[in-house]
Design brief:
CATH class of the largest domain: Alpha Beta
CATH architecture of the largest domain: Alpha-Beta Complex
CATH superfamily of the largest domain: Medium-chain alcohol dehydrogenases, catalytic domain
Largest sheet: 7 strands, mixed
Strand content: 25-35%
Radius of gyration: 20 Å
Distance between the termini: 27 Å
Helix content: 10-25%
Structural class: alpha/beta
Number of domains: 2
């Protein structure tokens, strides 16, 4: 297969900083599009993978799965896109496209295993995939997404992970008018959850451990804000919520939140705490409640999310950085020092050559 070399930012080892390096990209196959990357969001998953915290990272590792760019070339059989289109690439760049889940538009659950945008086996080059901290990327057109024209492309980039990670469970559990919905944690995921749930027509209750985030939660669209450390405030919502989206990745008492659900209510976890969360049986059986998990959506649902956000003018709150600041951004990410998502201006990589 024909290859080309591009510049990227990645790391050679778990303890090594990210730095500039050269990677290989395939040249277009008949159904591929080549994308000049303009912006790439920084997800906490990038940090976990770069530092091998989830184990299994293959080096060199080039993170990045919140990609927005412009198509600069297309394969001979591409029918969905043309040169000049502004497009996105999220967490997936391929799947078997034949199993039951792929046929149902649930490529994220592909039975043989979906191909992740980075640190996944690359069937074309027989290496691992490399992500969006790079000049360009080549992707099968079936895994490329249209970016609504009215949205700021930089602030749209985080929608490709944070947006779909929150939209998918809210959609799956039928959040909408007449539903009282809790959003736990006001961070990269939670701030998107508030915006999307509000746009869906729900009454949104935000839960935070910090009083300093009350005004922020209201600005993002929350109808009510609860200090989760205040037992009295929590008690006021016992049995009141139809659905809770839990976006917290730190250890916390899940039973406290299950107690806030109505009969037949559901709590969906999208945060990923390092250790198991103990669940008391009576937190569930007393009200026929459900404790569930959710991840990203498939390609069709991700496009649906982008179109929904375009219709409601929803984007992430971002802080733009140059690629040379990525190691500093990772340290700040560990401290929660970002409101609410870093986005890399990829022209900073091109200008450094």
């Amino acid at each position: 297969m024909s290859e080309t070399q591009v510049q990227a930012y990645g790391t050679e080892a778990a303890q090594a900083p990210l730095n500039q390096l050269t990677i290989k990209r395939r040249k277009n196959t008949p159904h591929d599009v080549e994308i000049d990357i303009l912006f790439c969001g920084v997800c906490h998953s990038d940090l976990h993978t770069a530092r091998n915290e989830w184990h299994g990272t293959v080096y060199p590792c080039v993170p990045g799965h919140e990609i927005v760019g412009k198509i600069i070339s297309v394969g001979d059989h591409v029918s969905k896109f043309k040169v000049g289109d502004t497009v996105g690439v999220g967490c997936l760049v391929d799947s078997c496209q034949e199993c039951q889940y792929c046929r149902e538009g649930l490529e994220q659950f592909c039975e043989p295993g979906a191909t992740q945008t980075y640190n996944s086996p690359d069937k074309h080059l027989q290496t691992q995939t490399y992500g969006g901290y790079s000049e360009r990327i080549v992707v099968d057109e079936n895994f490329v997404l249209r970016i609504p024209e009215k949205l700021d492309p930089a602030a749209t980039a985080p929608l490709l992970c944070a947006g779909i990670t929150t939209y998918s469970p809210l959609r799956h559990w039928n959040v909408g008018p007449g539903k009282k919905v809790g959003i736990v944690g006001i961070g990269g995921l939670g701030h998107m959850g508030i915006k999307i749930a509000k746009a869906m027509g729900a009454h949104v209750v935000a839960f935070t451990t910090s009083e300093s985030k009350f005004a922020e939660a209201k600005r993002l669209g929350a109808d009510e804000v609860v200090l989760s450390k205040d037992a009295g405030q929590m008690a006021a919502f016992q049995g009141k919520l139809h659905f809770i989206l839990d976006a917290v990745s730190a250890q916390h008492d899940i039973n406290e939140y299950l107690s806030l659900l109505r009969v037949d209510g559901s709590l969906a976890l999208v945060g990923a705490p390092e250790f198991p969360l103990p669940v008391a049986a009576f937190s569930l059986i007393g009200g026929r409640k459900s404790f569930a998990g959710s991840m990203i959506g498939g390609i069709a649902e991700t496009q649906e999310m982008l179109d929904f956000c375009g219709e409601h003018n929803i984007v992430a709150d971002i802080e733009m950085i140059d690629i040379q600041k990525i190691n500093e951004a990772y340290e700040r990410l560990l401290k929660g020092d970002v409101r609410y998502r870093f986005v890399i201006d990829m022209k900073s990589l091109k200008s450094s050559q």
